[in-house]
Amino acid sequence: MGGLIHWLLIAILSLLRLSRPVRQHSHHPHRLPQVQESTLNEVVLTVDHRASGILRCELLATTFEQDTKQDNMTVVGDLLLLNCSSPFSYPPTALTWDINGLQAGGPREIVVTYPGEWDGEGRVSAWSGLHMWLRAHHFREGVLVLRCTASILHVYRVSTELIITDGNYMQTSPREGASTGGQWPLAHG
After folding, report:
1. What does the alpha-carbon distance between residue 42 and residue 132 come to, in Å, rounded to a whole number?
2. Is the pTM of this model over 0.70?
3. At residue 138, what are phi and psi to the nearest 5 degrees?
4. Which of 38, 48, 125, 183 could bridge 30 with an S-S bond, Cβ 3.0-4.6 Å?
5. Contact between residue 69 and residue 57 where contact means Cβ atoms under 8 Å apart
6. CA gap 32, 46 in Å, rounded
């Protein structure tokens, strides 16, 4: 008998980590193994949006050796809900969202502005959300870049980015380079 593969979906809820082992031959409707498409190096699963999260693959060999890899998996077609907030300020902080460098708010994205809270000194906090269904066209060359920018008039501006990569994206190899005997141009200073 060869090794045994376990898939573990890890959900992080506040500080609590939950994990549910899923056997390779399980009958979960959102994690079905495609045995015909799987190889010795790759297990192909059919998943839906419920499989999003941190996915860990654990290989247990018959010699009791173990190898584990884990990564975040976002399923295309999944509803992405993001929040961005800023602490108390006066004047209030304006929050904006960008998707791949373009301002969010098109027909397929919903930008939500939540009411801020006031402190005792006349300052207000800011809180915004971005809701969108992930589609293949969002991933440019396998990457989706989401940015929330906080600004106060023209005095203060800071951004934070979330980068989501598409694990199925196949990058083409360069036509020339070290592996093909091509030469890189030399930089002159």
Report:
1. 30
2. no
3. -70, -25
4. 48
5. yes
6. 5
For residue 57, give the nearest of 76, 38, 36, 71 by alpha carbon. 71
Query: Would you state the structure tokens that stand for residue 32, as one six-digit string?
Result: 């079905």
Beta bridge partners of 108: none
pLDDT above 90 covers a percentage of the chain that reads: 35
Report the distance separating Cα 79 and Cα 71, nearest Å.
19
Residues 32 and 45 sit within 8 Å (Cβ to Cβ): yes
Q: Which pair of tokens denotes residue 155?
A: 């005095």
Checking if the pLDDT of 37 tops 70, the result is: no
Residue where the block lists tokens 């990058």: 171
Q: How far is CA 39 from the centre of its chain?
A: 26
Which are the contacts of 46, defined by CB distance < 8 A and separation ≥ 6?
Answer: 31, 32, 33, 34
The 10s digit of each residue's pLDDT in 73-91 is: 656 677 888 999 999 999 9
Residue type, 149: T
> CA 146 → CA 14, 44, 58, 60, 182, distances in Å?
22, 28, 31, 37, 36
Please determine, for residue 185, whether its predicted confidence score (pLDDT) is greater than 60: no
